Amino acid sequence: MVRARAGTTGRSRSRRRARTRLGRFLAATTAAALTVTALVVSATTARAADAELAVNGGFEAGLGNWTCSANTGTTVTAPVRTGAAALKGTPAGSDNARCSQTVNVQPDSLYTLSGWVQGGYVYLGATGTGTTDVSTWTPAAASWQKLSTTFRTGPATTSVTIYTHGWYGTPAYHADDISLFGPSGGPVTIPTAPTGLTAGSPGSTYVPLAWIPVSGATGYHVYRGTQRVASSASASAYLTGLTPSTVYDFEVTAVNNAGESPRSAAVRVTTTSGGGGDGGLPPHALVGYLHTSFANGSGYTRMADVPDSWDVINLAFGEPTSVTSGDIRFGLCPVTECPNVESVADFKTAIKAKQAAGKKVLISIGGQNGQVQLASTGARDAFVTSVSRIIDEYGLDGLDIDFEGHSLSLNTGDTDFRSPTTPVIVNLISAVKTLKARYGAKFVLTMAPETFFVQLGYQFYGSGPWGGQDPRAGSYLPVIHALRDDLTLLHVQHYNSGPIMGLDNQYHTMGNADFHISMADMLLTGFPVAGNTTRMFPPLRPEQLAIGMPASTQAGNGYTPPGEVNKTLDCLTKRVNCGSYQTHGTWPALRGLMSWSINWDRFNQFEFSRNFDAYRWS
């Protein structure tokens, strides 16, 4: 939130540096791949006669002999390259539409894998080769394009898995005439039951599972009792939609073209109690920031004069005595700046009146001028003590974290949002968990990061694997993830933002429904952080999400007219009026909207809040 905002700087330079490093990396990788291919081609000829080993590579028999993840694959009659059918794979959410089959091969033998593809991003590859697994891909193909690669099997390899898949958030792809040519092996057999099934740390509504990969398996199914609850192409799964404080038993099977294995031994999991809850909010809520310690050109609005439209009132702002002290102070706007400011006693009385009417009043920490870096345990403890003092003095309902600028960044080498090591991140998480434990289940916790710190994490995370990127990129993700069970609302600021890439791999620009829809869809669907599919940021519950917009053209860049606001809500909650961007779901439980600010809405004749009040959610 800003008093006089400017966009985040330095992004274009960091992106150019990241692209330069990526280009060098790809050039080196390509050169290495060409060298490996040359060595393979010059290797000794396979000992057995070569033959076509891919079964139903033209998909004339439907999906026979192929296993597609999460029902994302089907066969179509157009477009086809030859014959009457082809494969269509449609990536959805965190699934990349992987279709595969396991083929028996000879050890220490040369094979050529090829196929024809069309449409969005598409990959063709082989795993389990016993040497170096291979893949080839194209970012897009308007007409049929051939992909081809070669590999040599290891000295003990008797089967490999060939596959094709798309990419997250991209359009559907088509594949036809997939071929694996080389010495034939024996028949494919049903895989054995998986072993080593374990559960990671569960949350209130989710649990990660993992197991030991099974030789010859092309995929896995996860069961809860008699119900299949998930399918996975790899030896792990992330289950969501669970109930807090509930005991679950899960089993897993391995599958390939020959059939499905027996079930593994069960693993028992108990979800946590959570405690984030909804903070006593209405099903659809309006969140606003009240300029309490300054006027910002919009005029001072007394607490007693805040309209009833606003369900959550964030007091802007509590600020630190210094950037690294952790000591947060809060006070009302000086009379010299705000001649109509009320007394502290009247302010506290008005807060109680709002709470009696069902409203929530929070202290918001940070803002443009309130840089907060909890770089030490001393700063962490001072933060807990000082924020508690403010909450207790004014009788507040909770805390809003509005860290901006350089408050959060990731140290070099801190690359996994699931287990952060940077002190300012770790200490913030610890401080908030302490506050949550102190005040209990009714404590309302909200966050208001900028897109640079959240959705940009789809492309860039911290300084990156080779360094040179802006270390702030995506730096809110570990905080959100670690506190997701305690989080009441996340309302990312969809303003003062540069263009951000969505799950469709297209850049979206603020100020219209398309931007809000694509940015919200990322958080409701989940996404691979920095494109790493082994590090998926899980989706948030729709009732945890509100969309941040400026209340007027004066409030910040990215003002959205009421008609576009309504299109945003229509698309996300009813899947109508979506425009060109196609969401990955429909979320009627979306919590609502956040605005900067209550003062600017009043300045603009209450256009934002009146439009929200008039919107028909069903």
TrEMBL record:
SMART domains to which the protein is assigned, alphabetical: FN3, Glyco_18
Q: Which SUPFAM superfamilies match?
A: (Trans)glycosidases, Fibronectin type III, Galactose-binding domain-like
Residues in Fibronectin type-III domain copies: 193-274
Write the signal peptide boundaries. Answer: 1-48
Q: Which PROSITE patterns match?
A: FN3, GH18_1, GH18_2
Where the record annotates domain GH18, the positions are: 284-618
Q: Which UniProt keywords apply?
A: Carbohydrate metabolism, Glycosidase, Hydrolase, Polysaccharide degradation, Signal
Q: Which GO terms describe its biological process?
A: polysaccharide catabolic process
**What GO MF terms are annotated?**
chitin binding; endochitinase activity
EC annotation?
A: 3.2.1.14
Q: Kindly name one Pfam family recorded for this protein.
A: Glyco_hydro_18
Could you confirm whether the keyword Lyase appears in this record? no
Please indicate if the UniProt record lists Hydrolase as a keyword: yes
User: Which family does the similarity line name?
Assistant: Belongs to the glycosyl hydrolase 18 family. Chitinase class II subfamily.
What protein does this entry describe? chitinase
Give the species this sequence originates from.
Answer: Streptomyces qinzhouensis
